[in-house]
What does this fold into?
Amino acid sequence: MPGGEAVEGERVPASTSDLAVDLRLIGRLVEGTEPAVIVTDLDGRITYWNAGAERLLGWPAEKVLHQSVEVISAASADSLTSEQIHRGLTRQASYTAEFALQVGEREPVPVLVTTSPILDDRGRATGTVAVLVDISDRVAAERDARLRATQMTAVAAVGELAIAHTSLVALLDSALRQAVQALDADVGTVFLVEDHDLRMAASVGLPSRLAGSHRVPFGDRSLAGYTLERDDPTVVEDLASETRFVPPPTLLDAGVVSGATAVMRVGGRGEGVIGVYSRRRRSFDADDLNVLRSIANVLAHAMERDRAHQHLSRIAITDELTGLPNRVLFLDRLEHALANLDPGSVVGVLYGDLDGFKHVNDALGHAAGDELLRAAATRLLDGVREGDTVARFGGDEFAVLCEGVADPQEAAQIAQALAAAVASEPWQVEGHEVNASISLGVVVSDGTDDAATLLRDADAAMYRAKSAGPGRVELFDEDLRGTVLSRLERTNELVAAIAEEQLVVHYQPEVAIRGTEVWAEALVRWAHPTRGLLPPSEFIDLAEETGLIVPLGQQVLVTAAEQLARWRAMGSDEAPSAVSVNVSARQLTEGDLVGLVADLTASLQLPAWSLWLELTETAILRDLDQAIATLTELKGLGVGVAIDDFGTGYSSLAYARKFPVDAFKIDRSFIAGMTDDPRDEGIVRATVSLAHSFGILSIAEGVEEPAQMEGLRRLGCDYAQGYLLCRPGPPEVIEAWVRTHRPSGR
It folds into this structure.
């Protein structure tokens, strides 16, 4: 229709001829505009149909003019939509609605319909004008916005799941369902990298049996492998026609057409692939890939956290050096075995200690000791039955759990076979050939004993085996049970003795051979309530084994320091001017020995040099690095340090040179033989000479004869201690001895 004439202010006439004129005016206004404009008369017949209507509905004007509006309402297969169209074009009233218009086989088109009545100058309706606007772009934008919001919500939900879930498997399953829903997909998979391939860890829309068991290869032989190799998201338009990789049969069988995959990177490495797939052909755009990548990143962080948790859990139940179960895991398995014991069978527990390990560790160093322990673990693993548990409890102690054992004799036979396997051939350690064996204690239970009791009994049997010689096996029996119970009773008594301060300290003078100085060594005794005064030989070994040596040693050190403070207040003519206290190996590594000594010397106002600590070579070599570090700190405080029983341990001159000490105490065994055996005299002479060459003192223990004292004076030894001078006694006895026997200095 021609246009260009202004029509503002004209009204719709009532006559038919005037209505035709009016339609021409409407045509001039709307022809060439985008919306579809349709006019109907009072009978619902179409009187006007513009080019926009032709484009929107696909029918030319000549086909629909003078037709009933029913031809339009019939354009929708949806009965509700059909009714809306009919009402809008026939009601002669203002009306606005949105609905999907479908014509023929075309995709439904969302439209906005606005209708208004055409009125004459008296306000009477003469027809209806309807404007239909294609709102596809707006609806698509709103749908995309809703989808993006849903996707972002899904990513946030996955993040919350990652925080809340303790199970990685459950998290992967829940997160994958969120991803499939957010990306309007039908199928989903998560593959995790394992040693030689990728394993499906979770799936949606696939047979449940696949998750956890289905595996695919690396590289282009699978979609997941291809994505991992590229380390970049992969978009699939038509899976069946793919040539970049071998289309996965599991996805083809599920009817998958399109899809997208993304890599889960853990610690900079691709450790998994997440994928979502559609059964209809569609394109996954950049926004879809960003969502998938975000979910992949959340899962990657969760996997990294899970691995850290697993590592910590593994450390908690695994021996770091050998990779074997530790005491915690062994006890758990033992308790489980006892609770699920088959009728007629017993559980066997083997407790072992490597013979000769200490010598290897002391002579060749900790690296060699560690290598020996790892090798021993391997031989034990190779020697046990399938299903048995081998554990390391620390140090050179191992335990073996044997389930389904018929009787004690079978358990003992298993132990004999293990002992033979361990000692079957020499060990190659740090380039040295080493012979080592294992002593094993064996105990069995029918389920009536608890795990702690079995370990205690197996430990007791092991100690009896060790005392009988290397490589021995001993079966726990009733005689040994009495020994164990007695040891437990003595341990409890010793705990009470420490708590109730039944321990007393006696002293023995250390006298300058060519001077007037008198020192004293503190020697602990146990004032047992029923057995009287017990010497150290009755309880020190027990204290060492049980760890009670640490509180016991601290108590002795405090008592001796307090006594030294009282003696120094009396003066050197009345009492010793310095005191030495024995320190165990465990005190060097457990508790705060340096802090305690610093507190005592400060609080009691003791000159640091007046307090001495004595350690054996064996104690120092038990953990050489730690011992040297602790001794260096003690030296920094100014206290004296002496090596007790020098010459009886495993130390070489190279080690002795490293010790930050102030004196060597020559063992009594060499002093006893020095007047009769030239070799013992030679050892004493060499020790005195070595001490002086290091610029430190030499102190002889166990001097009991005048000839020994004369020999020590001739060899240049600095101090002497022994029954010849004074037996150990309480403080008042030592004070009396000092007043009457102080050396003249000759």
